[in-house]
Amino acid sequence: MLPPLLLLIATMLWGSSFIALKIAFTDYSPMWVIFLRMAVASVCFLFMYKGLKKFQYRAGDWKLLLLMSLAEPCLYFIFEAMALQHTSAAQAGMVTAVLPPLAAGLAFIFLKERITGVALLGFLTAFIGLVWLSLAAEENEHASNPILGNALEFAAMACSAVYCVCLKKLSERYSPVTLTSLQAFSGTIFFLPLALMQDTPDFTFGPALAAIVFLGVFVTLGAYLLYNIAIARMDLSKATIFSNLIPVYTIIFAYWLLDESLTSSQLAACGLIMSGVVLGQSRRKQLPVVTMAAMPD
Fold first, then answer.
1. pTM score, two decimals?
2. What is the pLDDT of residues 185-199, one digit of tens each?
3. How big is the CA angle at 130 (ends 128 and 135), to the nearest 5 degrees?
């Protein structure tokens, strides 16, 4: 029961991250927000140096480690930061519902997991619902360009799916603490020059700075660490199912903290997305031979 419990907590934290980002972006530029959350998480990981000392690099793994870090946090957070500049937290949270079928598709290609016709139908249904959600969106103070924002969030989910496949393979020989800390350190290095290219903000403690600290400690460190622990102990397809809860958490938090709401048409689109996600979770049989031949060693 431990892995499902960890995933329940991780998805709740991820659902709250959209709201925290919206709050942080009110006072700070996206690149500074992302850099600072990575830096906060990195500082926290320094206190776990005993666990990091156990890291034993395996020759050739640099390609897979680099791809994992490039996919998430680097490209993932760039797309997500851009997305939240144009769409609401509630809509961005709903787009995360496409992660399970995307991850299943990559697992089919690289991990040789077979996907049923019903699962493919589920992916198509969820994608249609995503398009409907975007087209039915109305421009307001929370979403200036929802079509663009939702498309960027979809790109972030594609990066996340690549990350999940890499993580599953790497978790066979590296600890969750090692992999999560690598994300934090690589993200800090990657986003530092991007942040310095923008004006240095005046840091004053308030809701925005508190949101950044929350993102660093509870999301970048906490949620990812819990997720990485769980994914090392269960099948990838089963673990990604729990990401379906992220939209639910996000909508609840957005309504509660940001006073966001969805139109009746958008709620219907959300229902279509969730229906597609449920279809996409039909049983997937695994081929007898599981290889990573198509992935870098």
1. 0.81
2. 999 999 999 999 988
3. 95
